[in-house]
From TrEMBL:
GO molecular function: glycosyltransferase activity
Lineage: Bacteria, Bacillati, Actinomycetota, Actinomycetes, Pseudonocardiales
Reactions catalysed, as given in the entry: an NDP-alpha-D-glucose + (2R)-3-phosphoglycerate = (2R)-2-O-(alpha-D-glucopyranosyl)-3-phospho-glycerate + a ribonucleoside 5'-diphosphate + H(+); (2R)-3-phosphoglycerate + UDP-alpha-D-glucose = (2R)-2-O-(alpha-D-glucopyranosyl)-3-phospho-glycerate + UDP + H(+)
Domain Glycosyltransferase 2-like: 51-172
Keywords: Glycosyltransferase, Magnesium, Transferase
Cofactor(s) it depends on: Mg(2+); Mn(2+)
InterPro entries from the UniProt entry: Glyco_trans_2-like (IPR001173), Glycosyltransferase_2 (IPR050256), Nucleotide-diphossugar_trans (IPR029044)
EC number: 2.4.1.266
Domain of life: Bacteria
A matching Pfam family: Glycos_transf_2
This protein's name: Glucosyl-3-phosphoglycerate synthase
SUPFAM superfamilies in the record: Nucleotide-diphospho-sugar transferases
Species of the source: Amycolatopsis taiwanensis
Annotated PANTHER family: GLUCOSYL-3-PHOSPHOGLYCERATE SYNTHASE, UNDECAPRENYL-PHOSPHATE 4-DEOXY-4-FORMAMIDO-L-ARABINOSE TRANSFERASE-RELATED
Length: 338
């Protein structure tokens, strides 16, 4: 992997405070999408097969362009990707039709492993996506991206195709916050900055070098993805990082700069629920490895307040959501028990 001593992401003045392992990892395991030219990847691919999994819930606006771009650049023009699967996560819009018309294989989330009880959430869609595909390498791409290019996929595959010791590659980017007012160039990733990053630095400082620990664009080896549990909600990404660094060490992980990413932002209440799910995933992992002993487990119900109409004008309406950290077991364990 290219030596990034003087390149992005840079360790600033506080480098002395970073665990030495992180500073070294940043140099060894960070690269740019442009470091992985398609011709080199095609040469390295050999018989390795590649699946792209796109989880999508109500993404009719964007999912078609993402599928078309991957199929045009990486299936038809150059044979890097072997299958493109959209997991339709109970969409109420035309996501499934749009994705199929763009050339994806579309699987309904609940139709995969149908004998299991259905669970809800993004992590569930990803787990079913792994179950529904066969590639040796699996690339995940969110279905709500506005500025997707095929270099997302080539960048994520680069370290996996050329280095057997890399197990899992995370994307990173600049994240503008778009909508409402003027664009904030790095205003996106609010849950990342307010919740995930502080928790990671407190409890897994070896992961502190990840620029976008919650990125929805990442790739992994099938045997690795089938060996870890998947939290079924938005805790899935932080769960992956914690579980893989714990089982395989930091050098099994890499990150690639994919440039800039814009996506459909969720509202504040949705981000509050996401934050709660991420916190509960962290507490779950801390408890499992005996680092947190709580006299009373955290409550899993989140009360949020919105505006509703009452007979006396605007009322405060309370909505309760269950954020329980449900998990799917490693897919490999299902096969062993079959
Ligand atoms: O039940 C669900 C919820 C979401 N999605 C899809 O998952 C992707 C990402 O979901 P989104 O709601 O757009 O998440 P973000 O607000 O963008 O959250 C960020 O942070 C999350 C927590 O780590 C990650 O899961 C996301 O990938 C990452 O983009 C999109 O294609 C969704 O359609 C599903 O398939 N099923
Ligand atoms: O990754 C995150 O932090 C959340 O998805 C929120 O992202 P946003 O602030 O760009 O909407």
């Amino acid at each position: 992997m290219p030596d990034r001593a003087a390149d992005h992401p840079r360790a600033g003045a506080a480098e002395a405070e970073l665990p030495a392992a992180v500073a070294g990892w940043l140099r060894r395991r960070s690269s740019l999408a442009g470091d992985w030219p398609l011709a080199d990847l095609l040469a390295a691919k050999g018989t390795t097969t590649v699946s792209v999994v796109i989880p999508a819930r109500d993404e009719e606006e964007t999912v078609g362009d993402i599928v078309r771009t991957i199929r045009r650049d990486l299936v038809r023009t150059y044979p890097l990707v072997d299958e493109v699967v959209v997991v339709d996560s109970r969409s109420r819009d035309a996501t499934a039709r749009v994705a199929a018309e763009a050339g994806a294989k579309v699987v309904a989330q609940d139709a995969v492993l149908p004998t299991l009880p259905n669970l809800t959430g993004k992590g569930e869609a990803l787990w079913k996506g792994v179950a529904a595909t066969t590639g040796d390498l699996v690339v995940f791409v969110d279905g709500d991206l506005y500025d997707f290019t095929s270099s997302y996929v080539t960048g994520l595959l680069g370290p996996l195709l050329v280095d057997r010791t890399v197990a899992y590659v995370k994307g990173f980017y600049h994240r503008p916050l778009v909508g409402g007012g003027p664009i904030e160039v790095d205003g996106g990733g609010r849950v990342t900055e307010l919740v995930a990053r502080p928790l990671i630095n407190m409890y897994w400082p070896e992961l502190a070098g990840f620029v976008q620990p919650l990125a929805g664009e990442y790739a992994g080896r099938r045997e690795v993805l089938e060996s870890i549990p998947f939290v079924v909600n938005y805790g899935v990404e932080i769960g992956h990082l914690i579980d893989i660094v714990s089982s395989r060490g930091l050098d099994a992980l890499a990150q690639v700069d994919l440039g800039v990413r814009t996506h459909r932002h969720q509202d504040m209440h949705a981000l509050g629920r996401m934050s709660g799910q991420i916190m509960l995933t962290v507490f779950d992992r801390l408890e499992r490895c005996g680092r947190l002993v709580s006299a009373r487990p955290p409550a899993t119900s989140l009360a949020q307040f919105g505006r509703g109409e009452s007979g006396h004008g605007v009322a405060r309406e309370m909505v309760l959501t269950d954020l329980t950290c449900r998990q799917r077991p490693p897919l490999a364990s299902l096969r062993e028990n079959a």
